[in-house]
Amino acid sequence: MQLTDFNFELPDELIARYPLETRSASRLLHLNTDGTYKDLHFTDILDLFQEGDLMVLNDTKVMKARLKGKRASGGAIEVLVERIFDQTTAHCHIKASNSPKAGAELFIGSDEVKVTVTGRHENLYIVEFSQPILQVLDAYGQLPIPPYFNREAEAVDTERYQTVFNDPTKLASVAAPTASLHFDEDLLKKLEQKGVKKTFVTLHVGAGTFLPVRTDNIENHIMHSEWCEVTEEAAQLIAETKARGNKVIAVGTTATRATESAAQACGGKIGAWTGDTQIFIYPGYEFCVVDRLITNFHLPESTLLMLVSALSSRDNILNAYQHAVESKYRFFSYGDAMLIEKAN
Question: What keywords does the record list, in alphabetical order (predicted)?
């Protein structure tokens, strides 16, 4: 399949650069197995989910991973912490007028923190911080909101670019699992009262989620690596749900990639698994776990658009997206949502 097969026209004014006042107030486009769709509100999932269904959510937390600083010469730089390996060592993206070489020293926060480049790992820099990284991020970092917001992080993002159920001990993502941003405590409580179950997996979202696909033939694209974990408890709940004929509802593409990675690693059936995943889901992929997917509207020609096309079909998704554009749905991280049924 070609990259251009996943293109569509999106007016700039449909990009949601700020969240709605209430998390669960977004619209919901429900895409059925046969490609028909219906305009709903997000809270209508209360009527669409059944007792015994299982929601799988990603409990990662977003780091204040963006740091601004300067070189020893005074030139401005920006460091985006992608992955922390120990208290002071991380893989990072670095924006600078010239690519820093091994041994280069960068400074954060009025020169209080020194960041030394020690080498490269693929497209990332290996860096050593002079102080514990999480303390540096807490003191000087900004939330790494998506580039298509075209703005700096603001106070509203501190709360709204995190899920209400994030696990503070899993502070390691550089982007939010945005489908989960639609859930507030009240909606989660109502779902629980109805008998809809939930479980958590973890996938620490990397900045690669925003990188464009640079190959014309999508099968030649290599996904970025992200760490994920599916616990024994989560795997058992998923297996029990499928065994009794209820639906497994992945909340977001990250929960989808975590559960499907675990199933692939365990021979096609869900099992406990922890590791790095580079799973690339595009049309032709046979899902092992996910029956239904809650997701936002994704960028043209993105791997996330390819993933949702695999669950339904490319034609179904692009038709639904055309309707969403015509109906002025809000797109991307702070936008409206879809509920996609796996095609038969």
Answer: Cytoplasm, Glycosyltransferase, Isomerase, Queuosine biosynthesis, S-adenosyl-L-methionine, Transferase
